[in-house]
Amino acid sequence: MKSNLENFLVTSPELEQLGFIKEGKNVLSPSDITSILNGRRTSLLTLQHIDGGSFRIERMQAKISLFQDADNHISLRIHPVYYNPRYPDLLQDELAHLLLDRDEVSLLIHDHEHGYADRIFEFDFETREFLSYFPGQVEVPKAINAELLTAQQQKDFKSGKMITLSDGTHIQHRASETVGVIADRSKLIFSYVREDKAVHLLLEGIGTFPWKHLHQQPHETTGFNRAMNQLLQDKPIEVVNPSEARGR
Q1: What is the C-alpha to C-alpha distance for residues 77 and 149, in angstroms, rounded to an integer?
Q2: How do residues 29-55 score in pLDDT, each as one tens digit?
Q3: How many CB atoms sit inside 10 A of residue 39's CB?
């Protein structure tokens, strides 16, 4: 049975007008569809025939996402490319420049003095836009490459901080990425528990860190290969804790 979001992707008049539904089928790439269904933005797309009521744009570059409110009403969001980035009110200029200069991938901002909850900020270099979200909105995997994440690793991942697996793989959540993370491996296997069921996702085409010392390395680690072999044999992935992973 299709979810509300899946139905929206093949029935939305807005998506059809933009050219993303043809003959009742969504023609976005599988990776973009996966991103949308997981609450993220697509890659940079060419949008056509945008009707804003008082204006009309024939063609523009933008990313899109879907927002579903508490009443399950779904709306399409368009994220255009900005000529000049707009600085968020909650982010001081010197902190904003840490993101603009690629000194930081993301920043966790605490501002309890003014009654604001913790918020993570990123800068999307493709749309030239700052974006923010709450740590509680981040879905944390139970394991990566068949290695269980510790409680501290789960907390760090949710807070937008880099985590390191026992084999030295570096991973960081990044909402502006199509697959939702960056890493120094181009492929990873994420394992989640959803509705009491194990769900395993192969992430491909993962973006890398902006720093030379964390360039991407071959993805075929012991943990990845073991998890992939079990997936190909249609077997449950046997997850292990970090100390066991180091011994394999």
Answers
A1: 33
A2: 988 998 998 889 999 998 877 776 666
A3: 17
3-state class (DSSP) for residue 2: coil
**The token pair that represents 152 in the structure block:** 């501290």
3-state secondary structure of 136: helix
> Which H or E element spans position 32?
helix 30-37
- Supply angle C-alpha 140, 195, 5, rounded to 5: 80
Q: Is the pLDDT of residue 187 over 80?
A: yes
What one-character DSSP code corresponds to residue 97? H
Helices 4-11, 30-37: axis angle to 10 degrees equals: 130
pLDDT above 70 for 107:
yes
Q: Which two tokens stand for residue 75?
A: 């709306």
pLDDT band at residue 114 under the 50/70/90 scheme? low
Is there a contact between 184 and 208 (Cβ–Cβ < 8 Å)? yes
- 27 in Cβ contact with 16 (< 8 Å): no
